[in-house]
Amino acid sequence: MLNVTDLRNGTFYKEGKDILLVLTYEHVKTGRGSGNIKLKTRNIRTGAVTEKSFITGARVDEANVEKEKAQFLYRDGDSPVGEFYFMDPVSFEQFAIPAQVIGDQAKYLKEGLEVILIVSDGEALGLELPMSLVYTISETGPGEKGNTVSNVFKEATLDNGLVVKVPMFMNVGEKVKVDTRSGEYIERVK
């Protein structure tokens, strides 16, 4: 059992059969009474984000969660029913993870990408991507001279199929850095 005051951003705990990830932690003390702990959590299995409130002395079940490195190999099948194949970089063992576990993060996966899998009792619950990744523009409108300073954007399709807004001066074949949390263009990569 964990005391709720030990929970911090990025920690996991169990509620019934669900494993929750703490997104935000706030300790609120008002007047004479005991303090309250307010959490914003994400259910690892369903992806649902909820707000929880506990009194200071409350206890929650500790989740048995491990983080393991893996390398993405390839995707087999269509989105809702397909599987994603990964490899353990130490043992070179290959394993499949269902598409519903990967969810929206599938659009960022590219062959050879190193990720961190969130595993509990031998079951993959999700994955952590690097904060930003570099992709090559495979399709976009024509670049225009003189638009290097303005903040005018156009749509570009990247080599992994992701569509992002990039500055007008970007052309096909150039590399861009993309934020994996928001899916937005960060900067041009030389």
How would you describe the overall organization of this protein?
With 190 residues, the chain is mostly beta strands. It folds into three domains: 2-62, SH3 type barrels; 66-128, Nucleic acid-binding proteins (OB fold (Dihydrolipoamide Acetyltransferase, E2P)); 132-189, Nucleic acid-binding proteins (OB fold (Dihydrolipoamide Acetyltransferase, E2P)). Helix content is 2%, strand content 53%. The protein contains one helix and 16 strands. It has one helix spanning 99-102, and strands at residues 2-3, 12-15, 18-28, 36-43, 49-55, 59-62, 66-76, 83-87, 94-98, 114-120, 123-128, 132-140, 153-158, 163-167, 175-179, 185-189. The strands form three sheets. The protein has a six-stranded antiparallel beta sheet with strand order 1-6-2-3-4-5, with no helix packed on it. A hairpin with a 4-residue loop joins strand 13 (153-158) and strand 14 (163-167). The longest helix is centred in the middle third of the chain and has 4 residues, at 99-102. The mean pLDDT is 82.
Termini separation (Å)? 50 Å
Rg, nearest Å: 21 Å
CATH architecture descriptor of the largest domain: Beta Barrel
Helix/strand order: EEEEEEEEEHEEEEEEE
Annotated CATH homologous superfamily of the largest domain: Nucleic acid-binding proteins
Total number of helical segments?
A: 1
Compute the average pLDDT. 82
Low-confidence runs (pLDDT<50, min 5 residues)? none
Tell me which oligomeric state these chains represent: single chain
Give the biggest beta sheet: 6 strands, antiparallel
- CATH class of the largest domain reads Mainly Beta
Domain module tally: 3
The order of strands across the largest sheet is 1-6-2-3-4-5
Helix fraction, binned, reads: under 10%
